[in-house]
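Record filed here:
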Amino acid sequence: MTKKLKIRILIIALIFLIIYYLSIFFNQKYEHYLIKNYLENKETDIKDSNITNEDNYLGILIISKINLEKGFYNINSKKNNVNKNIQVLKNSSFPNEDNGILAIASHSGNGKNAYFKNLHKLKLQDEIYINLNNIVYTYEVINIYEAVKNGKINISKEYNNCLVLTTCSYKKNTQLIVIAKLLTKEAVAKLND
């Protein structure tokens, strides 16, 4: 291989790396913009399944321990897709509903959409927050386990008012499941005083 060819390959590799990191940077900037827009907007009727505004989040998932703050969309939105964002799973109900069980999935691994890549770092009693209509719901992790990856999650009826997070496990053919129970809900205005 000639010296000129090596230099060309190196330049092409550097260009691809720069493009990759720039895309990550701009995706993060856009994420911050969407979260800011969500926090500044009025309440959304989450019971209206026809709301599919593609540009507005329905709520925000916050897991401080793993440095994750990511908005989620209405179940019927095209952006409510694990290949694009975190995904609210069908049959989920929201924390403002009686015995609501909100289930959210995301990828793990190394891709730009691997929002749950550090989910395995959570431990019992860690806190997770859901911001929904200017109310922050605080959850505490009460169970972490792995199950066979078959496209279904069986949740015991004992888990009422909970949040379920799931992603692929690092073990072959299993998924990591984190269950957190609802502790409190508090209006955002009170948190900012």
Summary: The beta strands are 59-63, 68-72, 87-88, 101-105, 127-132, 135-148, 162-168, 174-187. Residues 41-191 form a domain with the Sortase; Chain: A; fold (CATH 2.40.260.10). The chain has a mean pLDDT of 83.
